[in-house]
Design goal:
single chain; alpha/beta; Rossmann fold; 2 domains; six-stranded mixed β-sheet; 12 helices; 18% strand
């Protein structure tokens, strides 16, 4: 089955030129005969879709940006981070991403259920019950942005998605214009301290750092989520260290280890905690995370 070409509106081209990241996943698409092809390369019939349930906050946000938030009849909430936009609170809850209330989903009579890795168990349960389900797991910022247009295409209306992409393109270009390319800084994004674990090559946080004008020192270490010793971190000695997830709770423990105090970033007070939802959650708000990190370093 032939697929429609990707919906790049300029931003995707910028990402390709700046990053050159290659995704090993399938990409969310609409085929020429109107089938949704999800990130597991499964085909889902899109006729008579008007009631959607989102099992992932990232998908919920993207539906908002695409202009089809009104199609949501139920959402799974984030368990340990914020839910956005505020209007999410007005939508029926079907549990959280790791504990989906299947009975509640059934009561809401959805036409389509969207989920991803954290909600995979609930998504699979609902598929077994005969519901139309789609797995959405973008692995690059380009795919995150392209997905807005795919959501719009489901309902034959991409107008708002196109407008939002134009705004995001302008913001990214502003960030690129502010980057001091003559003196690029190095950085690392940690999500655990015991053991030390970082986001590596190809991960979305790695892409965020690159677009913010920073060189990720963990990029050349094997794997998307490399683990290494504090001694190795000392060898890498990044100018900036960003903390997220379990690493945030370990910041106080870090102060008790004299090895951490030998790091340039620690000595110079360059240990930062960016808004988690703007850096780790695969939604268009990643662009704001790029902007915020860029501004905190270079302005």
């Amino acid at each position: 089955m032939r697929k429609l070409r990707r919906f790049g509106l300029g931003l995707a081209l910028i990402f390709t030129l700046v990053l050159g990241f290659a995704s090993g996943s399938f990409a969310l698409e609409i085929s020429t005969d109107g089938m949704l092809i999800d990130d597991l390369d499964r085909e889902i019939q899109m006729t008579n879709v008007s009631r959607i349930i989102s099992l992932e906050p990232a998908i919920t946000e993207s539906l908002y940006f695409s202009g089809h938030f009104d199609k949501l009849v139920g959402v799974a909430k984030a368990a340990m981070s914020g839910n956005w936009p505020a209007e999410v609170d007005e939508i029926e809850s079907v549990g959280d991403i790791q504990n989906v209330n299947v009975e509640k989903v059934v009561d809401l009579k959805p036409d389509l259920i969207l989920g991803s890795g954290m909600s995979r168990k609930g998504l699979d349960q609902l598929a077994e019950l005969g519901y139309r389900t789609a797995y959405v797991d973008p692995e690059s910022i380009e795919e995150v942005i392209d997905n807005l247009l795919v959501y719009g295409a489901i309902f034959n209306d991409t107008q708002q998605a196109e407008q939002e992409i134009a705004k995001l393109t302008d913001l990214l270009e502003e960030v690129e214009g502010n980057i001091e390319v003559k003196e690029p800084k190095t950085a690392i994004f940690l999500y655990n301290l015991k053991p030390v674990m970082a986001f590596g090559d190809g991960s979305i946080p790695d892409q965020v750092l690159a677009l913010a004008g920073l060189n990720n020192v963990a990029r050349d270490i094997a794997g998307n989520n490399p683990t290494f010793s504090i001694e190795k971190l000392l060898d890498l000695d990044p100018d900036y260290i960003f903390f997220a997830m379990r690493a945030k709770s370990g910041l106080e423990e870090m102060k008790d280890n004299p090895l951490w105090n030998e790091l340039t970033a620690v000595k110079e007070g360059h240990c930062l905690i960016p808004p988690t939802e703007h850096v780790l959650r695969p939604t268009p708000r990643l662009i704001y995370g790029i902007y915020e990190i860029n501004q905190s370093i270079y302005q």
